[in-house]
C-alpha cells in the first residue's frame, strides 16, 4: 500500500514539471500538494527512507516554487527535520545527506552544505553503501537538470534492462561527480580557487561527458 502512495506521489510530482504552460504553472502547486499528501500517506504506513526523502524533496520543491525567500523558514525546518530523521534511522542512506547539502547550498549555508556533501561523498566511495537509484529527482533545481537528469535516466533504463551492477556503478559515479561540481561552486564563493580546480578535475574524471563540468 505504501508503495502505491509513493508511485502516485511521483506521478503528481513529475507532472508538475512536465510543461511550462502558463495555466499549468499557475495551478501546478495543486499537483505538488497532491504529491506531498501521497508521500505523507506512504510515510504514515511505512516510514522508509525513500518515502521520507521523497516527502522532503516534494516539500522543498513546493517551498522554493511558491514562497519568497523570507517565507521559506518553515519549509527549511520541515525538510531538515525529515532528512535528519532519515539519517538518524538509516545513517547509510546517502541521498538524505545529498539533499541536506542541496538545501543548505540553496539558502547559502555553504559551510553546512560542504559538511553534508563531504559525508555523501564518503558514503558513495564505499561500494557497500546503499545508493537509491529511484529517489525523487530535484527537478526544481536547474543545476540538477543540467548535470544529472539525462544521464541518470539513461542509466535507469540500463538498470531496467538487467545491467544492474553496471548501472548502479555509473549512477554512483554520476552523483559523486555532481557533488564535486557543487562543492566547486561553493568553494568559488569562498575564493578558494585551488579547491575549485581540484574538485572540478575529479568531477571531470568521473563524468567526462559532461559539458557543464
How would you briefly describe this protein structure?
The chain is an all-alpha fold.
Describe this structure in words.
- The structure is a single chain.
- The protein is mostly helical.
- Helix content is 76%, strand content 0%.
- It is built from ten helices and no strands.
- The chain has helices at 2-16, 22-27, 29-45, 49-66, 73-89, 94-106, 110-124, 142-160, 164-190, 193-206.
- Helix 7 (110-124) runs antiparallel to helix 9.
- The termini are far apart.
- Residues 21-27 have low confidence and may be disordered.
Radius of gyration in whole Å, from Cα? 17 Å
Instruction: Enumerate the spans where pLDDT stays under 50 for 5 or more consecutive residues.
Output: 21-27
Main sheet makeup: none
User: For the terminal residues, how far apart are their CA atoms?
Assistant: 41 Å
Q: Helical stretch count? A: 10
- The percentage of residues in β strands lies in under 5%
Alpha-beta content class: mainly alpha
Number of β-strand runs: 0
Shape: globular
Helicity level, as a percent range? over 70%
Order of SSEs: HHHHHHHHHH
Mean pLDDT comes to: 90
Amino acid at each position: 500500500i505504501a508503495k502505491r502512495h509513493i508511485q502516485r506521489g511521483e506521478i503528481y510530482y513529475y507532472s508538475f514539471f512536465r510543461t511550462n504552460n502558463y495555466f499549468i504553472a499557475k495551478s501546478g502547486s495543486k499537483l505538488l500538494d497532491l504529491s506531498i499528501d501521497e508521500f505523507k500517506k506512504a510515510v504514515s504506513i511505512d516510514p522508509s527512507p525513500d518515502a521520507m526523502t521523497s516527502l522532503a524533496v516534494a516539500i522543498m520543491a513546493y517551498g522554493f516554487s511558491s514562497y519568497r525567500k523570507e517565507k521559506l523558514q518553515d519549509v527549511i525546518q520541515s525538510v531538515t527535520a525529515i532528512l535528519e530523521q532519515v539519517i538518524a534511522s538509516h545513517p547509510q542512506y546517502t541521498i538524505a545527506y545529498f539533499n541536506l547539502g542541496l538545501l543548505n547550498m540553496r539558502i547559502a549555508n555553504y559551510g553546512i552544505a560542504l559538511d553534508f556533501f563531504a559525508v555523501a561523498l564518503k558514503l558513495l566511495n564505499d561500494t557497500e553503501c546503499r545508493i537509491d537509484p529511484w529517489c525523487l529527482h530535484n527537478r526544481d533545481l536547474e543545476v540538477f537538470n543540467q548535470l544529472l537528469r539525462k544521464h541518470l535516466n539513461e542509466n535507469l533504463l540500463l538498470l531496467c534492462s538487467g545491467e544492474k551492477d553496471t548501472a548502479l556503478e555509473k549512477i554512483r559515479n554520476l552523483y559523486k561527480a555532481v557533488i564535486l561540481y557543487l562543492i566547486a561552486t561553493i568553494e568559488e564563493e569562498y575564493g578558494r580557487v585551488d579547491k575549485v580546480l581540484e574538485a572540478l578535475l575529479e568531477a571531470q574524471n568521473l563524468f567526462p561527458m559532461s559539458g557543464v563540468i
